[in-house]
Amino acid sequence: MNLNDQTIGNDILPGDIRPHINTELQNGKPLFVSHRKPLEESLENPIPQIMVKELNFYYGRQKALSKVSLGIPAKKATALIGPSGCGKSTLLRTFSRMNDLIANARIEGTVTIDGRNIYDRDTDVVELRRRVGMVFQKSTPFPKSIYDNVAYGLRIVGIRDKKTLDQIVEKSLRQAVLWEEVKDNLGKSALALSGGQQQRLCIARALAVGPEILLMDEPCSALDPNATARIEELIFELKDDYTVVIVTHNMQQAVRVSDFTAFLYLGELIEFGSTQKIFTVPKDRRTEAYLTGKFG
Amino acid sequence: MGPFPRSKNMEKFGQRKDAVDIVFQRTMLVFPLLVLLIVGGIFVQLLLSSWISIKEFGPAFLVTSTWDPVAEKFGALPFIFGTIVSSLVALLLAVPIGLGTAIYLAEYAPQWPRRIISSLVDLLAAIPSVIYGLWGIFVLVPVMRSHVQPFLGKYLGFLPFFQGPAYGIGMFSASVILAIMIIPFIISISREVILAVPHVYKEAAYAMGATRWEAICTIILSYGKAGILGGIILAMGRAIGETMAVTMAIGNNVKISASLFSPAYTLASVIANEFAEATSKLYLASLTHIGLVLFLVSIVVNILAWLLLWRINERQKIFQGR
């Protein structure tokens, strides 16, 4: 991949990967963002699907994110790294408006997904969350059978047809590389699975509703190295079809799975660029200090 | 231990049996034994005091409906029926209201109404039952007689439960009072249980695109199932044993009737009402026998409830063991 160098400063995108926004504006909003670029160009430059602009985030009086701007490319894996409390999880959660659930949380700026500001008043949050799946740090299987867990999101949108459900459940479990292990026990309680299996089940559950974007908040932090390796492989495969954003504390993990990396520190985006560049020639000395373990 | 050399202190910490420790442990053992002793003592005393009645009527006591102190013929069936039916109807009325309130308080209510309603609910649980009884006689019963029962009779009169004259006083009024008395228990416990569902599971449901309503129905209630049932059982236990308010509103009539409007009698109220006038030995023994039955009914209901909870917990244990 040919990745450009201008990563920092006013340029909020890794290289020249500005979105091809239809310049016709209606009510000040772009109508449509094209994901189709000329073929030769798109091979080199990924297209941002999530555009964050001047994002400030407050928990009560405390500022958690300060003027964060970046563009997260479609169908790539982007890692958010930084020391604890730097705001990376907060940033991740703004992409599916999970912060709506927190009292006293306040947001300024915009997060645009496929050309629509998701913080517009008329955003259908439920619909948004179906398009932007999320996997949490701790696996969160519901106290139901494996099958019912995966079918959960489908059933709440009203899909009842057994055949359709069967198909999607199998497909999702296959995508999450869990199918072979559970295919004979779909009726078994999801709580009986191992930690790694539960996390893959949660991924399958998130994939079942057909999201375009998959947010992962330290998905491996509670898993052993073996289970971690399997999830990482999975992420590597998923990014062919999904835009993956992953928060991780594990530098090696960021290197292994991600194409782009954003480094946050004290609520600010310090550096954003290709993972390769960030880890080999970081531009900011804070990034360098963090990566070399001087703090964090 | 592993490769670490065991320090002297650690050995001490793990193995040393302090004299004070032993004394404390033994002392603490006394209290649970005391509880056992009390329960056992009550049971034995009830058994002894009702022995004449047990010998006279045998197991038939439980299934006979005659209660005739003059002829000295005693049977407990109408009272068992009254106790169980009034408690069940009370639960039927109280569970939806209590659970609904709990869900509102835990999931929807803003800070200040939550606090106000919660403390009012706790206050409700602290009102003495005789006050509920007085309120029942002076407020609830007249309203039942003039409005509620005629209304139910008119529109649901095709059901056997809502037939017959509207006395006001009767099974239905007693059940309503019982329901009001147990609602606070259901609310308090369910609210705590719902609030205790780990936040991540609620988030996970929302992240799947669940609306609030869907998250509550599918996730929160299924996690809280065991606890909520526990609260309902506690409430049922209270309803079964409730004496004063029920005695004042139920009409105290030894009769088994399908209609909820007709006056009835419960195990607890017959003891309260007739204990003072029980002159003959057999009469007294039969009343104590009723007490024994009440004791056993409570125990059976509780055992059934435990079994139910145990089954749910078995299924969730895998999750908690992790």
List the main descriptive attributes of the protein structure presented here.
heterodimer, A: alpha/beta, Rossmann fold, 6-stranded mixed beta sheet, 4-stranded antiparallel beta sheet, 14 strands, globular, disordered N terminus, B: mainly alpha, two-stranded antiparallel ribbon, 1% strand
How are the secondary structure elements laid out?
The complex is a heterodimer of chains A (296) and B (322).
Chain A: E1 20-21, E2 25-26, E3 29-30, E4 33-34, H1 39-44, E5 48-59, E6 62-73, E7 77-81, H2 88-94, E8 105-113, E9 116-117, H3 125-131, E10 132-135, H4 146-156, H5 162-175, H6 179-182, H7 195-208, E11 213-217, H8 225-238, E12 243-247, H9 251-257, E13 260-265, E14 268-274, H10 275-280, H11 285-291
Chain B: H1 8-15, H2 19-49, H3 51-57, E1 67-68, E2 73-74, H4 77-108, H5 111-126, H6 129-156, H7 171-196, H8 199-207, H9 212-241, H10 244-250, H11 267-274, H12 281-321
Antiparallel strand pairs in B: 1-2
Description:
The complex is a heterodimer of chains A (296) and B (322). Chain A is of the alpha/beta class. Helices cover 33% and strands 25% of the residues of chain A. In chain A, a hairpin with a 2-residue loop joins strand 2 (25-26) and strand 3 (29-30). In chain A, helix 7 packs parallel to helix 8. Residues 1-44 of chain A have low confidence and may be disordered. Chain B has 322 residues and is mostly helical. Chain B folds into 2 domains: 18-49; 78-321, MetI-like fold, CATH 1.10.3720.10. In chain B, helix 2 crosses helix 12 and helix 6 (129-156) runs parallel beside helix 10 (244-250). Chain B is globular, with a radius of gyration of 25 Å. Mean pLDDT of chain B is 87; it is low at 318-322. The chains are: A alpha/beta (296), B mainly alpha (322).
How many H/I helical runs of chain A?
Answer: 11
Overall average residue pLDDT of chain A: 83
Q: Please indicate the percent range of residues of chain A in DSSP E strands (runs of 2 or more).
A: 25-35%
- Name of the level-1 CATH class of the largest domain in chain B: Mainly Alpha
